[in-house]
Protein 1
Amino acid sequence: MKVAILGFGTVGQGVYEMLQKARDLEPGPVLVRPGKADADYKVTDISAITGAPSVGAVVEVLGGIEPARTWVEQALQAGKHVVTANKALVAQCGPELAAVAREKGVALLFSAACGGGVPFLHNLALSTRSDDILSVGGILNGTTNYMLDAMQSRGADYAEVLKDAQQLGYAEADPTADVSGLDALRKIMLACAVAFEKLPCEGLYNEGIESLTADDVRHFRGMGYTCRLVAKGGPVGDTVFAFVEPTLVPASAAECAVKDNYNLARYEAKCAGDIVLIGQGAGRYPTASAVLRDLSDVIAGQRVMMPQACVRVTADCSGCGHPYYVRLPEAFAGKLPCDKVAVDNGIARVITKALTVKEMHDTAAALRTRGAQVFFAGIEE
Amino acid sequence: MKVAILGFGTVGQGVYEMLQKARDLEPGPVLVRPGKADADYKVTDISAITGAPSVGAVVEVLGGIEPARTWVEQALQAGKHVVTANKALVAQCGPELAAVAREKGVALLFSAACGGGVPFLHNLALSTRSDDILSVGGILNGTTNYMLDAMQSRGADYAEVLKDAQQLGYAEADPTADVSGLDALRKIMLACAVAFEKLPCEGLYNEGIESLTADDVRHFRGMGYTCRLVAKGGPVGDTVFAFVEPTLVPASAAECAVKDNYNLARYEAKCAGDIVLIGQGAGRYPTASAVLRDLSDVIAGQRVMMPQACVRVTADCSGCGHPYYVRLPEAFAGKLPCDKVAVDNGIARVITKALTVKEMHDTAAALRTRGAQVFFAGIEE
């Protein structure tokens, strides 16, 4: 099968290279920006791809919503299978694009959009056919895991590890989407859509790691915990819960073994039990390898990753909860139902009683509007 | 697709139950022993399955070589897809059965034969289509992992944890295949066949945990290590290496997070990097879930797990090596190239210089023929 590529950045180049060696696959035209077509196989007009009968599948690695959405839809309409690594696109337009793919009898797969090289959505989708998924989650952002791992192992401060992450190419010049938890949130939205046929679009909570300090990390270590940025989702009534927050995990958890910029994805299925998958969540070749596995899956006959019945829902995070570690000014500590409080130099470090995710995130937001510096992390029981 | 089942033990019953709820699948006739057909759907003659046009696929969960081999071949010849959980069968007859499946254009998948509910062979096979696999391995036997985990966490002795494992149904009355490493060895043989197109049949080494004592475990803990029974395989020249041995892993390794009777499978691919998969390696529903995933994969169009080019080879374990922990009578300690030796009460505990797997296993075998009590474990670097 000849495979065209939309976009020729880091991942696009990796896909092109892997296509040259893959079984039953070969590289086709690559769409680049006007003026950048410096080789025979590079084209600048999408119609050179959608109109080419020899092209069987299109890989989209442009990122962003437009023009990716328009071109993916045109490719599907033209009867081409589409494999995309674009989480923003699938989170926003997944159900509609999947409907076009279904109508045209072609595939729309997006493993690389969640977990990079970790074979998460592929296995999740396969399991849904015969098993009930009870929960999904994990460490879905490699940039912040690199930063947290470095802070934990070297005792370094936030600003220092962010700079390191940028120099290593793990973090972008504007790291907001990573460090705020938004990137991980988009990924857990996709996992919920695949696992529960519900794409949560509102009522979601994401707390990042921007306010974490080396002092906090020292406290976690003293408590025997490791801090990871964890995403979680699960069914609740007619909807799902889905959130991202810093999480303190005990030394025995698989999450602690996730070093550097690796990802960990997990799901619990009624029959299969707990399944944990660890691998590289980003980078040229790991992400390209997820794209290539999807393409091999297309050749084997696989078509559907976004379930036909998938609907958009407002998430409900008012039913799931756990204790939290909260660091905040002493004056505000009374706002929380405390189990333990330690105060030092006007700073309170609180272990709360069990709070719902909604309660904790809403309380932190309210305190911040009053000028309080707050960091919080869920505690894994 | 209607699915017949050969064998109605623990796993067969789980498969039957899951088939009743799975998408696009339904249970068909179940083959039981003569005199055991106490319900309409139970049959005692294989021809009631191979001759039934409505049966699209056959699940084989009998175990052992015969009559499983004959019946699987008859099912394939009759144009039925086959999914099996039988590692002994695939390790012994896999290439020939795969040839029959290929000739008839039907599937032969065997995910459940290696790693139980862990989606190992499925992902490995998918990765081989576009990536080069560099190594395979992991904790592939849940019984011994339960025992090692209990010895490590409770300080219990071997006999005690074996009894516990038997009472919990994790270990059979005759636990030899598990505790000797033979079960894990068969699984790594299958992984080598899928990953490297080479099924190693001779030149293999397996060391089990029968000679492990609570004293050894105390020493590992003092050294900061956890003991796991680890299988490894990889390409070497025109063949592969493949072995099973107790292995001391550092606290940071994902293997340490594998508790109770769980399994961990890992592979390294050139582009995807390290992929680690953790889940339940045995039990009714986890194993049945692997069978059901294979059946869903058959419906999607997947046919091949054992590569067409797969050949039988003699393994070569003379090129891979590492240091070992060896406990043996003081009088024999001079037989090993030692880095460190501690002697207590006539018992020497040695950390060796790097030895090849062949050297260490052969040396231990030679010492045992001279009556020496020896335990050894590879040390993960």
Protein 2
Amino acid sequence: MEIPDSARELLESAALAHLVTINPDGSPQVSVVWVGVDGDEIVAGHVPHNRKVQNIRRDGRVTLSIETRRQNEMGLTEYLVVKGTARITEGGAVELLRELAKTYQGPDADFLPADNLPGGYITHIRVDKISGVGPWA
Amino acid sequence: MEIPDSARELLESAALAHLVTINPDGSPQVSVVWVGVDGDEIVAGHVPHNRKVQNIRRDGRVTLSIETRRQNEMGLTEYLVVKGTARITEGGAVELLRELAKTYQGPDADFLPADNLPGGYITHIRVDKISGVGPWA
């Protein structure tokens, strides 16, 4: 599905994403990652071939959640939950992470400055369903 | 396992928990909740018999993640991941949520003020493994 503008704004901000993948034994694996938006896909970069990458290659079902700094009328913090289908591509992770660092760390970020890094992996998430608490729910 | 002091401090703070349970089809279900600590268990309250409660009753494997506001030497935000085993008890949710509201909303919070609310459900999470980025990892 297309990403609604309200959700896109949060996905493109410096708010962190809690990315859930599924372990081989069916239990959830979570890490907190930087994300960006590329067209109608959410993207994240990984330099090593870590558990997340291995999990997504085996089972593309992912969920991510992001807190806002806004509260609703009950005083509950608004948050976005995205249920999606992910795929992994090889290469380009360092460039993506350096780009995302400008959002997450600031325009002058010097993230992963070494020039001999491996290409890494990019997770591309197609959005299947949006929920949570906020204008997108 | 016992909860390390560094993790306990975060679990008892106003930082929100992203709680993952497992849907019947094996996909992850996520919501952002208030949590507290009771002895060596993490607790959360739910007034309705929602999806989380139903999922935990079927499969007690849960994971929760919490962001700090601290960054490590690479400029990455520290966060806690708890892998645990959860069980549900009935009743006491409103009292727990009113108590947690003092932490999450402030000492004068007037959360769920009605006096005719159902007892709800409490999730109790026994900690099996702690990871993430921070002094607990």
